[in-house]
């Protein structure tokens, strides 16, 4: 199966036309059936269960930038087209940012830990957090290293406020600390994490339930997930969350904090000339979707490509996220372009 078109062929598929005050294109929405389609997202089956759909179609490129050195094949699903639509694209890397959503440094050795005996953070349990750290080490960090020399910006979004020592430890949209201040800020951040008491209260040993509706009371008193101070300790969520140490943060990488708001993030990216976003991180079905730097915001102002195998979904009652991530990506594909690590290729400008 042909995976990439040359730029000369792509140019024939996008016919520009000019409207008053706006440049537009007349997109030829021609779908060509792909015979013997290959499984999608099949490179990391321990992290994402492969997407298997019998009907695949090839569509013309949506993006064919003049200096398109970043080749990004993507797909979406359409019930009306009755199948998966694969779309090759060529992006100007200088107009592309990678946004990594919520790479929390929980249980990664920096000091921020899941509270015991029954606290809840990030993946939910220390064992699930180990799986996320392994994924970031094996998938996300190599991807960032390979693309960092090419793209305009790599940005990490984290919860909370843009306050010290976080703004001292990282380059942010509001601070440009020198190396000396970064080192001091990181030491202060790690000290705050390590001095916290991570011992909180256990699950209740007895419950008082209504005799007629015991199930109602049972779930009211013993929820499936409760990250309140009872289980996590007072002040846990006010600690300075670091970027996980399985990701090598470059001095040029930027950290953004959710409470700064989407308008500030949008303006920062626009000022850098960003048009395209490669989106990845945690968790596919939650933060990657609906936090400040999630695709529900970004897709209104940028061309967003969700790097499916560089994400992991929440996976209660399962030992890994493979099927949960598959489902979250499949649902997102109704209104979002999905790509994968092996579909992102670079060529010299």
Just name the CATH architecture of the domain at 98-308. 3-Layer(aba) Sandwich
H/E element order: HEEEEEEEEEHEHHHHEHEHHEHEE
Average residue pLDDT: 93
Q: What's the overall geometry? A: globular
Spatial ordering of strands, largest sheet: 11-10-9-12-13-14
Report the uncertain regions: 1-20
Helix content: 25-40%
CATH domain class name of the domain at 98-308: Alpha Beta
Gyration radius from CA atoms, angstroms: 22 Å
Strand content: 15-25%
Gap between N and C termini:
26 Å
Could you describe the largest sheet, including whether it forms a barrel?
Answer: 6 strands, parallel
Structural class: alpha/beta
**CATH third-tier fold name of the domain at 98-308:** Rossmann fold
Q: What is the number of strand segments?
A: 15
Number of helices: 10
Description of the structure:
The protein is α/β, with parallel strands linked by helices. It has a domain at 98-308: Rossmann fold. The protein is 26% helix and 20% strand. The chain contains 10 helices and 15 strands. It has helices at residues 7-13, 126-147, 166-169, 179-195, 214-221, 229-232, 262-271, 287-290, 295-298, 322-332, and strands spanning 14-19, 22-27, 32-33, 56-58, 70-72, 74-78, 83-87, 90-91, 96-101, 153-158, 254-257, 276-282, 303-312, 337-339, 344-346. A 6-stranded parallel sheet has the order 11-10-9-12-13-14. The longest helix has 22 residues, at 126-147. The chain is globular, with a radius of gyration of 22 Å. The two termini are 26 Å apart.
């Amino acid at each position: 199966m042909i995976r990439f078109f040359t730029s000369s062929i792509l140019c024939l598929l996008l016919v520009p036309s000019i409207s008053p005050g706006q440049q537009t294109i007349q997109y030829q929405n021609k779908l060509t059936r792909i015979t013997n389609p290959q499984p999608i997202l099949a490179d990391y089956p321990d992290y994402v269960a492969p997407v298997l759909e019998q009907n695949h179609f090839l569509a013309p490129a949506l993006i064919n930038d003049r200096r398109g050195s970043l080749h990004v094949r993507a797909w979406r699903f359409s019930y009306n087209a009755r199948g998966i639509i694969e779309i090759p694209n060529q992006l100007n890397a200088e107009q592309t940012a990678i946004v990594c959503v919520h790479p929390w440094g929980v249980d990664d050795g920096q000091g921020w830990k899941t509270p015991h005996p029954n606290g809840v953070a990030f993946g939910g349990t220390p064992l699930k957090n180990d799986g996320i750290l392994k994924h970031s080490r094996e998938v996300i960090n190599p991807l960032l290293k390979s693309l960092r020399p090419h793209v305009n910006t790599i940005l990490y979004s984290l919860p909370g406020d843009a306050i010290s020592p976080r703004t001292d430890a990282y380059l942010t949209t509001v601070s440009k600390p020198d190396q000396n201040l970064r080192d001091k800020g990181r030491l202060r951040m790690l000290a705050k994490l390590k001095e916290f008491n991570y011992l909180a209260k256990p699950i209740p040993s007895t419950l008082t339930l209504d005799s007629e509706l015991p199930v109602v009371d049972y779930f009211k008193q013993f929820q499936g997930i409760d990250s309140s101070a009872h289980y996590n300790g007072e002040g846990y969520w006010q600690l300075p969350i670091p970027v996980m140490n399985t990701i090598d943060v470059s001095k040029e990488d930027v950290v953004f904090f959710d409470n700064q708001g989407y308008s500030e993030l949008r303006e920062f990216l626009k000022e850098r000339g960003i048009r395209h976003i490669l989106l990845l991180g945690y968790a596919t079905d939650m933060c990657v979707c609906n936090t400040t730097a999630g695709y529900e915001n970004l897709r209104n102002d940028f061309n967003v490509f969700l790097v499916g195998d560089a994400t992991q979904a929440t996976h209660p009652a399962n030992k890994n996220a493979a099927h949960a991530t598959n489902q979250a990506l499949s649902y997102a594909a109704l209104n979002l372009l999905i790509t994968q690590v092996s579909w992102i290729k670079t060529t010299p400008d």
